Amino acid sequence: MESTHGSFPIPLGDDGVTAVRGVNGAALTSFTSVRRPTRIGAPAIPLRTVTRVGADGAPVIEVHGELDIVTAGPLREVIESVAETRCAIITVDLAGVPFCDLVGLEELVKAADGLAARCGRLTLANPPSSLRRLLQVTGLSRRFHRIIDAGTD
Protein backbone atom coordinates (compact mmCIF):
# COMPACT_ATOMS: atom_id res chain seq x y z
CA MET A 1 0.00 0.00 0.00
CA GLU A 2 1.20 3.51 -0.69
CA SER A 3 0.14 6.80 0.82
CA THR A 4 1.06 10.35 -0.05
CA HIS A 5 2.62 12.68 2.50
CA GLY A 6 3.11 16.10 0.95
CA SER A 7 4.22 15.40 -2.60
CA PHE A 8 6.32 12.32 -1.80
CA PRO A 9 4.82 8.82 -1.81
CA ILE A 10 5.53 6.93 1.40
CA PRO A 11 5.15 3.14 1.39
CA LEU A 12 3.20 1.85 4.36
CA GLY A 13 4.22 -1.43 5.94
CA ASP A 14 1.75 -4.06 7.15
CA ASP A 15 1.63 -2.22 10.48
CA GLY A 16 0.75 1.07 8.75
CA VAL A 17 3.75 2.90 10.19
CA THR A 18 6.45 4.68 8.23
CA ALA A 19 9.08 7.04 9.60
CA VAL A 20 11.39 9.47 7.85
CA ARG A 21 14.78 9.38 9.54
CA GLY A 22 17.15 12.29 10.03
CA VAL A 23 20.92 12.29 9.80
CA ASN A 24 21.34 10.97 13.33
CA GLY A 25 18.65 8.31 12.85
CA ALA A 26 15.98 10.08 14.90
CA ALA A 27 12.46 9.99 13.51
CA LEU A 28 11.63 13.42 12.15
CA THR A 29 8.19 12.65 10.83
CA SER A 30 6.03 9.58 10.92
CA PHE A 31 2.68 8.65 9.48
CA THR A 32 0.36 6.06 10.95
CA SER A 33 -2.94 4.84 9.60
CA VAL A 34 -5.27 2.48 11.47
CA ARG A 35 -7.72 0.55 9.38
CA ARG A 36 -11.02 0.02 11.08
CA PRO A 37 -14.00 -2.19 10.34
CA THR A 38 -16.92 -0.49 8.64
CA ARG A 39 -19.79 0.31 10.98
CA ILE A 40 -23.28 -0.45 9.77
CA GLY A 41 -25.04 2.74 8.76
CA ALA A 42 -22.03 5.04 9.12
CA PRO A 43 -18.92 5.55 7.05
CA ALA A 44 -15.69 4.53 8.71
CA ILE A 45 -13.35 7.39 9.56
CA PRO A 46 -9.91 5.80 9.88
CA LEU A 47 -7.46 7.21 12.39
CA ARG A 48 -4.35 8.78 10.91
CA THR A 49 -1.47 10.33 12.80
CA VAL A 50 1.39 12.52 11.62
CA THR A 51 4.30 13.13 13.98
CA ARG A 52 6.35 16.26 13.45
CA VAL A 53 8.70 18.50 15.36
CA GLY A 54 6.96 21.62 16.69
CA ALA A 55 8.31 25.17 16.62
CA ASP A 56 9.78 24.66 20.11
CA GLY A 57 11.55 21.46 19.07
CA ALA A 58 9.12 19.21 20.94
CA PRO A 59 7.22 16.41 19.20
CA VAL A 60 3.65 17.06 18.02
CA ILE A 61 1.37 14.17 17.08
CA GLU A 62 -1.44 15.36 14.80
CA VAL A 63 -4.46 13.06 14.98
CA HIS A 64 -7.10 12.82 12.23
CA GLY A 65 -10.21 10.63 12.43
CA GLU A 66 -12.37 9.14 15.15
CA LEU A 67 -10.74 8.21 18.45
CA ASP A 68 -12.68 5.25 19.78
CA ILE A 69 -12.43 1.65 20.96
CA VAL A 70 -10.90 0.54 17.65
CA THR A 71 -8.33 3.31 17.21
CA ALA A 72 -7.44 4.45 20.75
CA GLY A 73 -4.93 1.68 21.53
CA PRO A 74 -2.88 2.28 18.38
CA LEU A 75 -2.77 6.02 19.18
CA ARG A 76 -1.36 5.28 22.64
CA GLU A 77 1.27 3.07 20.97
CA VAL A 78 2.26 6.00 18.74
CA ILE A 79 2.56 8.26 21.80
CA GLU A 80 4.66 5.65 23.62
CA SER A 81 6.88 5.21 20.56
CA VAL A 82 7.57 8.94 20.42
CA ALA A 83 8.19 8.96 24.18
CA GLU A 84 10.84 6.22 23.83
CA THR A 85 12.99 8.48 21.68
CA ARG A 86 12.42 11.64 23.67
CA CYS A 87 11.28 12.03 27.25
CA ALA A 88 9.84 15.53 27.28
CA ILE A 89 6.60 17.30 26.62
CA ILE A 90 4.67 15.66 23.80
CA THR A 91 1.70 17.47 22.28
CA VAL A 92 -1.22 15.52 20.83
CA ASP A 93 -3.13 17.79 18.43
CA LEU A 94 -6.75 16.65 18.26
CA ALA A 95 -7.97 19.31 15.79
CA GLY A 96 -8.74 16.58 13.23
CA VAL A 97 -10.75 14.43 15.66
CA PRO A 98 -14.52 14.84 15.23
CA PHE A 99 -15.35 12.22 17.88
CA CYS A 100 -13.71 10.71 20.96
CA ASP A 101 -15.43 8.09 23.11
CA LEU A 102 -14.61 7.08 26.69
CA VAL A 103 -12.13 4.44 25.53
CA GLY A 104 -10.28 7.15 23.61
CA LEU A 105 -10.25 9.31 26.73
CA GLU A 106 -9.01 6.38 28.83
CA GLU A 107 -6.12 5.71 26.44
CA LEU A 108 -5.10 9.39 26.44
CA VAL A 109 -5.07 9.37 30.26
CA LYS A 110 -3.02 6.12 30.30
CA ALA A 111 -0.55 7.68 27.87
CA ALA A 112 -0.30 10.82 30.03
CA ASP A 113 0.25 8.75 33.18
CA GLY A 114 2.84 6.55 31.48
CA LEU A 115 4.72 9.57 30.19
CA ALA A 116 4.60 11.25 33.62
CA ALA A 117 6.09 8.11 35.19
CA ARG A 118 9.06 8.40 32.79
CA CYS A 119 9.73 12.13 33.34
CA GLY A 120 7.60 13.43 30.48
CA ARG A 121 4.34 15.28 30.13
CA LEU A 122 1.45 15.12 27.67
CA THR A 123 -0.27 18.24 26.34
CA LEU A 124 -3.59 18.07 24.49
CA ALA A 125 -4.14 20.66 21.79
CA ASN A 126 -7.47 21.50 20.16
CA PRO A 127 -9.64 18.79 21.74
CA PRO A 128 -13.20 18.55 20.41
CA SER A 129 -15.70 20.39 22.61
CA SER A 130 -17.27 17.10 23.74
CA LEU A 131 -13.88 15.80 24.93
CA ARG A 132 -13.05 19.10 26.62
CA ARG A 133 -16.36 18.87 28.49
CA LEU A 134 -15.62 15.26 29.57
CA LEU A 135 -12.20 16.33 30.84
CA GLN A 136 -13.75 19.14 32.90
CA VAL A 137 -16.66 17.11 34.30
CA THR A 138 -14.52 14.12 35.27
CA GLY A 139 -11.62 16.17 36.61
CA LEU A 140 -9.24 14.32 34.29
CA SER A 141 -7.93 17.55 32.79
CA ARG A 142 -5.43 17.75 35.67
CA ARG A 143 -3.77 14.53 34.42
CA PHE A 144 -2.42 16.42 31.40
CA HIS A 145 0.35 19.00 31.36
CA ARG A 146 -1.85 21.49 29.53
CA ILE A 147 -4.95 21.61 27.38
CA ILE A 148 -4.73 24.30 24.74
CA ASP A 149 -6.80 25.56 21.81
CA ALA A 150 -5.58 26.93 18.48
CA GLY A 151 -4.20 30.41 18.80
CA THR A 152 -3.13 29.98 22.44
CA ASP A 153 0.18 28.92 23.96
Automatic annotation (TrEMBL):
Taxonomic path: Bacteria, Bacillati, Actinomycetota, Actinomycetes, Streptosporangiales
Protein family per UniProt: Belongs to the anti-sigma-factor antagonist family.
Segments forming a coiled coil: none
Domain STAS: 56-153
CDD domains the UniProt entry points to: STAS_anti-anti-sigma_factors
UniProt-recorded Gene Ontology molecular function terms: anti-sigma factor antagonist activity
Protein name: Anti-sigma factor antagonist
Membrane-crossing residue ranges in chain numbering: none
Organism (species): Thermopolyspora flexuosa
Gene3D superfamilies: STAS domain
Pfam families for the chain: STAS (PF01740)
